[in-house]
């Protein structure tokens, strides 16, 4: 059985795995009690190479999110909800609709943010393969 996640003090940790576990514990702590049992069950299945990569990626995302101001995190959550709604639409947008969307400064800022995230993920993955 997996060791339960507990609050890890913000201190220097000895290993990368311990650091990843601390980041995950902080995320779960912010999500509240319902998430704790689910994460504990999931943690039991993460002791594989793919599981470790998943934890590293999740930890990277957590570090990214905690550096953002709360209003940006809220905007990110709204954007993900809107994206989910857009993906469930039965018909794809027309070119004219996409062009209208691209005129919005908010859309352009969002695209820049997404491309920055994709760049960092790609850079991290390339460094890991070396």
In total, how many domains does the architecture comprise?
Answer: 2
What is the strand tally? Answer: 0
Helix content: over 70%
Q: From the helix content, strand content and strand pairing, which structural class follows?
A: mainly alpha
What distance lies between the first and last C-alpha atoms, to the nearest angstrom? 34 Å
Q: Could you tell me the radius of gyration in angstroms?
A: 18 Å
Sheet-strand content, in percent, reads under 5%
Query: Main β-sheet: number of strands, strand sense, barrel status?
Result: none
What is the helix/strand order?
Answer: HHHHHH
Low-confidence stretches: none
Rounded average pLDDT: 74
Shape: globular
Helical region count? 6
What labels would you give this structure?
Putative chromosome segregation protein, 0% strand, single chain, 130 residues, mainly alpha, 2 domains, 75% helix
Structure description:
- The chain is mainly α and 130 residues long.
- The chain folds into two domains: 67 residues, no CATH class; 62 residues, no CATH class.
- The chain is built from six helices and no strands.
- α1 packs across α3.
- It is globular and about 50 Å long.
- It starts with 15 loop residues before the first helix and ends with a helix.
- The model has no long low-confidence stretch (mean pLDDT 74).
- This is Putative chromosome segregation protein.
- It comes from Acidimicrobium ferrooxidans (strain DSM 10331 / JCM 15462 / NBRC 103882 / ICP).
């Amino acid at each position: 059985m997996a060791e339960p996640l507990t609050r890890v003090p913000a201190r220097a940790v000895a290993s990368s795995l311990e650091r990843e576990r601390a980041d995950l514990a902080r995320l779960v702590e912010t999500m509240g009690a319902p998430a704790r049992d689910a994460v504990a069950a999931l943690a039991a299945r993460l002791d594989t190479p793919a599981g470790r990569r998943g934890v590293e990626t999740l930890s990277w995302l957590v570090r990214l999110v905690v550096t953002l101001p709360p209003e940006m995190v809220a905007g990110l959550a709204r954007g993900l909800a809107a994206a989910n709604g857009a993906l469930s639409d039965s018909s794809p947008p027309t070119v004219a609709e996409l062009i209208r969307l691209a005129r919005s400064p908010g859309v352009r800022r969002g695209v820049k943010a997404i491309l920055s995230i994709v760049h960092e993920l790609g850079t991290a993955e390339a460094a890991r393969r070396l």
